[in-house]
Amino acid sequence: MHFLLPLLILLVAFPKIDRRIAFSLAFLAFIPDFDFFINFTHRFLFHNVFFPVILSSVIYLFTRNIQIFWISLYYLISHIILDLTVGAVALFWPLYERMFEIIIYFDSRLNFVFKINTYPLGVVEEQMTSRPSYFFTQEGIIVIMLFLIMLVIAYKKEIKRFFKR
Ligand SMILES: [Zn+2]
């Protein structure tokens, strides 16, 4: 989800985009979930509006390529938007220490429902102590596997060269 959806949207919306850049940066869409591995910071440390800006700026400093900057920013933000609709995210952490959740659905009378809920950060901590092994949850395994696949694709040439030696 985090990887495929933003990649497809990008390719459809900008057919002339440099596909190599679009594919090799797509792994960035997983990065926010790596806050799971830092004690009790999941869904706030890397899941806020500031993290995408900071990380893509760092990437820009290294690459000096404005297209890479925008695509990185897009992938990182897409993750946070997707998470907002499937659970709570601390959108403005550390300035505002509450989690946001967007709820959109049609109720039984086909009325369009749009709600924004907020929760204290502690909610995530509670959830994580009750099921702390992200490595072994379905979500965790999928994220790690897709990340490894992306790494292999991104460094295909380097890996080939390594084995040829
Ligand atoms: Zn996430």
Structural descriptors:
165 residues; mainly alpha; two-stranded antiparallel ribbon; 7 helices; 2 strands; 53% helix; 11% strand; binds zinc ion
Structure description:
The structure is a single chain. With 165 residues, the protein is mainly alpha-helical. The protein folds into two domains: 130 residues, no CATH class; 31 residues. The chain is built from seven helices and two strands, in the order H-H-H-H-E-E-H-H-H. Strands 1-2 form a two-stranded antiparallel sheet. Helix 3 packs antiparallel against helix 4. The protein is globular. The termini are far apart. The model has no long low-confidence stretch (mean pLDDT 83). The site of zinc ion has 5 residues, from helix 4.
